[in-house]
Write a structure and sequence with these properties.
By secondary structure, the chain is α+β, with helices and mostly antiparallel strands. The protein is built from eight helices and twelve strands. The chain has one domain: Transferase(Phosphotransferase), domain 1 (Orthogonal Bundle), CATH 1.10.510. Helix 5 packs parallel to helix 7 and helix 6 crosses helix 8. The radius of gyration is 19 Å and the shape is globular.
């Protein structure tokens, strides 16, 4: 990945079109809002999420970019082994041909870093490897998703992929707790429906990390919420609903909860109430 490709100004409509229409383009993922393509002949280390130019999807892409920039501006994007996957730019109204048998259509695109899955993990057509604590809790390390979107990975395999012993699980749980706390109380976003995936980037192939993606359903929190009770309930629900964090019956939940509340103490006094509410929801 050259330095120019990491700049938002590089990604004009013409460069997005050249990336997508090049014969070396490959599809590596598919979700509800678009398809993810890579093109090593053009730009190694770059991925483009592409969707037809429907107003609600393009607004979602723009919102995702704005949310990422909000998190970065509050310096909450990286904690230990966990970090936001960098988004470079959002480009709208790109006219191009994806299917040679089709007419040109308008698309919107999000340009981001590509996460490479570890080479020893065979996923078939899928390219995404997602951390999933709850599956680890029931001793199932693999669960294939529909439409080749990816594979969920439990605790033991997560640590193996990170090249760390299972005894380091508390340390990873603390990183996740501190990261989520930074989103909640520093960047003031709720972290709703994020995806946590394992891999490396082109710029750092030797370091395996947990990268965080898909910010289109994250909600921004008010600096002075009308009701602390409502905010506590909402944040507790986010933690309880997400499958990526330890649940109260797991031994390393204590490490997650302590890191979450200790980090929050710098900015807020409600984190203990959030954790208590989350435990009450589960128990």
């Amino acid at each position: 990945m050259d330095e120019e490709a990491r700049r938002a100004s590089h990604w004009t409509k013409e460069r997005v079109r050249a990336f997508i229409e090049h014969p070396a383009r490959q599809q590596i993922g598919k979700g509800g809002h678009g398809v993810v393509y890579v093109n090593d002949a053009c730009c190694k280390g770059i991925a483009i999420k592409l969707s037809t130019l429907r107003p609600q999807i393009c607004l979602s892409f723009r919102y995702e970019q704005d949310t990422y920039e909000r998190i970065v501006s509050h310096r909450a994007q990286t904690v230990g082994r966990v970090g936001m996957l960098p988004l470079i730019a959002t480009v709208q109204d790109v006219s191009m041909i994806i299917d040679p048998s089709d007419n040109p259509r308008s698309y919107c695109a999000v340009i981001m870093y590509r996460v490479y899955r570890p080479p020893e993990v065979e996923l078939g057509q899928a390219d995404q490897l997602a951390v999933h604590e709850h599956i680890g809790a029931i001793d199932a390390d693999y669960l294939e998703l529909v439409e080749n979107r990816g594979v969920y990975v439990g605790r033991a395999l997560t640590m193996d992929i990170l090249r760390e012993p299972l005894s380091a699980l508390d340390s990873v749980a603390r990183d996740l707790g501190r990261f989520l706390s930074g989103l909640h109380y520093r960047a003031r976003v709720d972290g709703n429906d994020l995806e946590y995936i394992l891999g490396t980037t082109y710029l750092n192939t030797s370091t395996r990390r947990i990268y965080v993606i898909d910010m289109d359903k994250v909600h921004w929190l008010e600096d002075k919420p009308p009701s602390l009770r409502d905010e506590v309930d909402a944040l507790a629900m986010v933690i309880e609903n997400e499958p990526y964090f330890a649940s109260p019956e797991q031994a390393h939940f204590t490490a997650f909860a302590e890191a979450y509340t200790d980090e929050a103490a710098k900015w807020s006094k409600i984190a203990h109430r959030v954790i208590k509410d989350m435990v009450d929801l589960v128990v």
